[in-house]
Design goal:
- This protein is of the alpha/beta class and 258 residues long.
- Helix content is 44%, strand content 17%.
- The chain is built from nine helices and nine strands.
- The strands form two sheets. It has a seven-stranded parallel sheet with strand order 3-2-1-4-7-8-9, with helices on both faces. The protein has a two-stranded antiparallel sheet with strand order 5-6.
- Strand 5 and strand 6 form a beta hairpin.
- The chain is globular, with a radius of gyration of 18 Å.
Length: 258
């Protein structure tokens, strides 16, 4: 796909992987719309790259509809959607307090919240964006490209990651069926599974912790750079034969149980 002059929407685009992707798309001539809950950062980035911002909670159908409508009114119908909105928690399925012996189970509302954001929120944006892309005329045999963000935790989740792994595993699991659903409409769908990246979730961690995490990565032994995620997203957009794939981007790490 020729990127120059087309429109993209990046969810979770105000920071981390999403912000890096928004910047790289803009550098390649794309008009970028940003969905995020952080209005201050989102508006600042949109101004920086000459794009547009919409405050969107991906768990809300009303928010998502309004967000797409606002971006399309300013920048036109998107041909690219990059789903980076997501979050996680760390809670064991069931656990025992070592001091009191009290047994607790995973609060189901907290499990459901992660599924709502990471899995259902991603699917909601895919469905809405794909419907919009279907109104476009193909360019060089393509109407659009959708890129999702899963995690290596989809395949080797750690202790306490049941909800996160389930949500990201769901994103991986739906990639090929959605690519098949949209094949006749000339819309491609792929998913990136990042490993340990230097994003805002880790930037507040002590340097010793970050160094220990980096040492777990076989090669290169460092944290991933968000720009490396963005580079892969750009290639998935440009390469017209890239479809229905789930790609790890992790320096060959395989996560230990803890």
């Amino acid at each position: 796909m020729n990127l120059d002059g087309i429109t993209a929407v990046v969810t979770g685009g105000a920071s981390g992987l999403g912000a890096a992707t928004a910047r790289k798309l803009a550098k390649n001539g794309v008009k970028v719309g940003i969905f995020d809950l952080n209005e201050e950062k989102g508006m600042a980035l949109a101004k920086e790259i000459g794009g547009a911002f919409a405050k969107v909670n991906v768990t809300s159908e009303e928010d998502v509809d309004a967000g797409f409508a606002a971006i399309r009114a300013k920048l036109g119908q998107e041909r690219i959607l990059v789903n980076c909105a997501g979050t996680g928690n760390a809670i064991k399925t069931a656990s025992r307090d070592r001091e009191t012996g009290e047994i607790k189970h995973f609060p189901l509302d907290k499990f459901e919240l992660i599924i709502q954001i990471n899995l259902i929120g991603t699917f909601r944006c895919i469905a809405k964006s794909a419907a919009g892309m279907m109104t476009l005329d193909p360019i060089d045999g393509e109407r659009g490209v959708i890129i999702n963000t899963a995690s290596v935790a989809a395949e080797d989740g750690q202790v306490g990651q049941a909800s996160y792994s389930a949500s990201k595993g769901g994103v991986v699991g739906m990639t090929l069926p959605i690519a098949r659903d949209l094949a006749q409409e000339l819309i491609r769908v792929n998913t990136i599974l990042p490993g340990i990246f230097d994003t805002p979730l880790l930037q507040g961690a002590p340097e010793k912790v970050k160094a220990a995490l980096a040492a777990q990565v076989p090669n290169p032994s460092r944290l991933g750079n968000p720009d490396e995620y963005a580079s892969l997203a750009i290639e998935m957009c440009r390469n017209g034969y890239f479809n229905g794939e789930d790609v790890r981007l992790d320096g060959a790490i395989r996560m230990a149980p803890r």
